[in-house]
Amino acid sequence: MKLLKDIDAIAFLGHPVINDMDDMCKFGLYLNDLNKFDGSAEMLVTEMQHQSQLQKAYETQQSWTASLEETRLQLNQWKKKGKKLLYSLLPARIAQLIENGVKPNSICETFEQVTIMFVNTVDFSSIVKNAEPTQLIKFVNSTISVYDGIVSTFDKVHKIETKADGSYLIVTGLDNHSPNDSSSLGKESMFSIRTNNDEESANKRQFPHFNQCELICAVALEIIENSHELHNPFDSENKDALKIKIGLHTGSIVAGIVGLSNIQFCLFGDTVNTASRMCSNSEAGRILLSDSSFSQLKNSLYYECEFRDTIEVKVKILFFYHFKTD
Question: Which is the most buried residue in 86, 186, 287, 290, by most CB within 10 A?
């Protein structure tokens, strides 16, 4: 401001402090009210344009962030589905190795003692001899699904494979091993495997006081009990339940994954063959076990066995026992 003595007045020049259009509306001002010579109007308009661009960029960034978050959630869902599929195809410990980056066909381990069990449908060939391929698949699938539903509820019991003749192979004892048996394991991997196994086993039935043979026998008895719900779909006149027989044997095996595609976890050794022969020599509704398996059950508080016969299998004299399933 300046004092003008000649006219006894004070002249002053000022302009309002305006940050944005909201302030202009608040003060009731228009662009024409601003000083035309100091660039205030141009500065305000330019600021408005920058603000609009920043707002648009912010909204675009927010949209990208939301899209990225949705993609991340979908990725996590697919990872969970992939992991669930992997763990349904392989024993949890082996699946964890692959998840940790171990090359599948490099996994090979020796197990000093496992118990292998075979389940077969009695007279399977005669039941399906006149069935169409699609009917055969449907029949086998309905039967195996019952077995799968039972095995999946037991901790430390692993399904290995299903064959075209409807035979079903499961094993216990794969969780008991020496780290030196594996060419792919280290201390860190072993710790990781145990930790993740605890998570995978949280919703399964656990029998900490059972040995491996007692555990697999619990599965066998439940399979026999539930087999009464299975019927021959190709004979409408026959309402009798399907008859199944079970055999098991305890011994050592070598286990690993073979091939580069369509990988499968396989068991190798005479223990597998002997368990298969136990099943072949068993009877409908009965569980036949070898002497090595019986040695784990003879002092059991949960099972009672009876002697059946002595049979020569591959130049081996083995004692066979049956459970009293009644």
Answer: 287
Residue 304 near residue 324, CB atoms below 8 Å:
yes
Determine how β-strand 2-4 pairs with β-strand 9-11. Answer: antiparallel
Q: Give the E-state strand segments of 96-156 in sequence order.
A: 108-121
Compute CA distances 88 → 40, 82, 92, 162, 293, whole Å.
71, 10, 8, 13, 27
- Name residues whose C-beta falls within 8 Å of residue 152's C-beta, 6 or more positions apart in sequence: 204
Query: What is the DSSP code (8-state) at residue 63?
Result: H
Rounded CA-CA distance 161/89 in Å is 9
The tens digit of pLDDT for each residue in 165-177 reads 778 999 998 876 5
**Which tens digits make up the pLDDT trace of 9-30?**
888 776 666 666 677 777 777 6
Element (H, E) at 316: strand 316-323
**Do residues 265 and 160 lie in contact, with contact meaning Cβ atoms separated by under 8 Å?**
yes
Q: State the DSSP string of 86-111.
A: HHHHS-HHHHHHHHTT--GGG-EEEE
pTM (2 d.p.): 0.69
Query: What is the tally of helices (H) and strands (E) in the chain?
Result: 9, 10
